[in-house]
């Protein structure tokens, strides 16, 4: 039904890779046991082994120990565990949390929930490309600060934060540092031996892995109150039956992302940006020209509603998104575009293109043609012009 | 590798039904979009539609409205949302929670975590078949009681609680009632129009559905603080990207369980119980003879370690479990067997058999033969005899 359709929405990343699927398949039907202790029966032991092998493979990518990585149901849960776990463990020490203004909802709304419980939250301004200035962060840290949560890369505009400087600052000030790497994991290198980050949120759904599985890196010694209570799984840090096919799929998906793929994405990204910005008048790049994730392009078309562009591109066989597609209230202006100094019009006229393993240069060129034509037509009839 | 092996462990239920898998498959590869609002693009709309159809089908089974059912990552998360959500919403009204002593860890340890935060928890005794006496519950409810959480059926011994009487009592006393129906959903009828239960925990993994997906019924009007913060998914009650293949798989799995299947399970259950209890000396049934889930048999073999039986049956090609297999600390005595008045020896000698769609009467007979032989051999060498 959707065969000729071109996905340049986040769904492009959500599409499961066939090789991931093939790797998961035996764990649906053949080795479907619950991982048991070593005294358990054979298939349970095999399930446990494959779970631990998957964990080890993901931990290795981060330069971490296996025991520092837990599987979760996705990035939302990972960020809930990180933020609520740290404040649960450190609430006697302090009650101040710092984040950037442009965090994803999983971090932003978790912090807002904590604010209602009495924690003080500082939402740091970002510059017009979306970057937090480490000097501004430095001035915000007080003796009451217990947690800094600043994303690795942005969900809408792809801007990459200087998490090395941020991490070193947090380390110096003895504050726990969490970063949401949902949109950067395997796209931008992150080695915990080189970058002093304490907690990292990750997800399989952004790298052609399965839905419903994510992960959290927890540096050894990080104070963290258990959030999901129940059984003693995941080193007693996250209760819940292990999702073996999910874990296997996540590890395989992570393995399949290569440096070459990221280079190819960057090339397509730059080509799409260049074509649109040069061919469509009054188009503005959101985010930074080079300091952005390889898969992200975000452009505002002045005097046109992003919703209209989305709809017209859909009719022409292209999926793109406007605002944040992570939730279903897309008529609110994007807090990210507002955060980088855009007004409501700029936010409403923004369109995000997400490239993936399945995107070709031909797709990109066809999309650029369609965008130019759609925007031109819409402007002719636009009451905003 | 495990072809000739017979699974009478919980893994038997965890094995995905091929028909569930076939139903899920298109949502991995073809309709993999994120569900968007109605203004989104075509595939997103289709994803949203299939999510809502899956929700509606599961809600219908309970006699509920679609808006009363949310998808979660599994039973552990569902019970965390239920317990923590209710106390979060009602903590000004009271601080007392009541549960049975034999709840699963997802409820038991969540309550223990709440106890550490200052809530008072009453752990109700059960009779020697595992049942809570509604009169005892009645006497435990005080003006400070805000929540009663009593399971529908037990995870280890299959005992079914009188949730109708319990629900009516809670309704009369104006106390929220949560039931963990992980092991009874689709095995024992539960209609929310007839039974006044406010919250029901469910899981796909006990009915040949996929791992990593569960659900929570929330009766309209039930006070519930949001627990997983982030986006506005699931009627703004549970943040996190929707797991479309999981939701589709859960609905299909629920659809596939039939009355006939449950009758066939009961027949095999009774046959297995009868054979073992009559053929193996000093074997004691744990739980109730008839008032138990169709898939559960739990027997203690005196003077033998359950761990030894498990190991020897594994070598003969049968998977069974001892204690609670939901977590990896199986050397602790089962709190369920202790709860029904058993001592440590009885708990350590207990073996649980779980029957499933893939179990045959021939499997049951072969298992009964093997159990009789293994127990006899072990007793010959047992230091406990």
Automatic annotation (TrEMBL), chains A, B:
Organism domain of life: Archaea
Database matches in InterPro entries: Aminotrans_V_dom, Cysteine_dSase, PyrdxlP-dep_Trfase, PyrdxlP-dep_Trfase_major, PyrdxlP-dep_Trfase_small
Keywords from the UniProt entry: Iron, Iron-sulfur, Metal-binding, Pyridoxal phosphate, Transferase
Cofactor: pyridoxal 5'-phosphate
Molecular function via GO: iron-sulfur cluster binding; metal ion binding; transferase activity
Domain Aminotransferase class V as annotated: residue spans: 6-366
PANTHER family: CYSTEINE DESULFURASE, CYSTEINE DESULFURYLASE FAMILY MEMBER
Family classification: Belongs to the class-V pyridoxal-phosphate-dependent aminotransferase family. NifS/IscS subfamily.
Descriptive protein name: Cysteine desulfurase
Organism listed in the record: Methanobacterium alkalithermotolerans
Lineage, top ranks: Archaea, Methanobacteriati, Methanobacteriota, Methanomada group, Methanobacteria
């Amino acid at each position: 039904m959707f065969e000729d359709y071109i996905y340049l929405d986040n769904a492009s990343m959500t599409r499961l890779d066939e090789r991931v699927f093939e790797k998961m398949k035996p764990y649906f039907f053949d080795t479907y046991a619950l991982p048991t202790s070593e005294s358990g029966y054979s298939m349970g032991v095999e399930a446990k082994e494959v779970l631990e092998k998957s964990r080890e493979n993901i931990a290795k990518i981060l330069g971490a120990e296996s025991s520092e990585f837990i599987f979760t149901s996705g990035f939302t849960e990972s960020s809930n565990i990180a933020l609520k776990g740290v404040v649960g463990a450190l609430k006697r020490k302090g009650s101040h949390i710092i984040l950037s203004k442009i965090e994803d909802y999983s971090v932003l709304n978790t912090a807002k929930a904590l604010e209602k419980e009495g924690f003080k939250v500082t939402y740091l301004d970002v510059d017009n490309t979306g970057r937090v200035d480490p000097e501004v962060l430095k001035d915000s840290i007080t003796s009451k600060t217990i947690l800094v949560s600043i994303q690795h890369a942005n969900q809408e505009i792809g801007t990459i934060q200087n998490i090395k400087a941020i991490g070193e600052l947090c380390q110096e000030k003895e504050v726990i540092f969490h970063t949401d790497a949902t949109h950067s994991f395997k796209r931008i290198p992150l080695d915990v031996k080189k970058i002093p980050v304490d907690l990292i949120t990750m997800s399989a759904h952004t790298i052609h892995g399965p839905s419903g599985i994510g992960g959290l890196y927890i540096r050894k010694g990080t104070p963290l109150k258990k959030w999901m209570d129940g059984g003693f799984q995941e080193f007693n840090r996250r209760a819940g039956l292990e999702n073996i096919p999910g874990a296997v799929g996540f590890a395989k998906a992570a393995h399949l992302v290569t440096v070459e793929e990221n280079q190819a994405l960057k090339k397509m990204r730059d080509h799409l940006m260049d074509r649109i910005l040069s061919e469509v008048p009054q188009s503005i790049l959101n985010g930074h020209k080079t300091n952005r994730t390889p898969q992200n392009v975000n452009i505002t078309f002045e005097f046109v509603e992003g919703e209209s562009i989305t709809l017209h591109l859909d009719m022409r066989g292209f999926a793109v998104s406007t605002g944040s597609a992570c939730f279903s209230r897309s008529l609110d202006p994007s807090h990210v575009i507002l955060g980088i100094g855009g007004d409501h019009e700029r936010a409403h006229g923004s369109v995000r293109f997400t490239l993936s393993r399945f995107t070709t240069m031909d797709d990109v060129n066809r999309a650029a043609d369609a965008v130019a034509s759609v925007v031109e037509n819409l402007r002719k009839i636009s009451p905003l012009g």
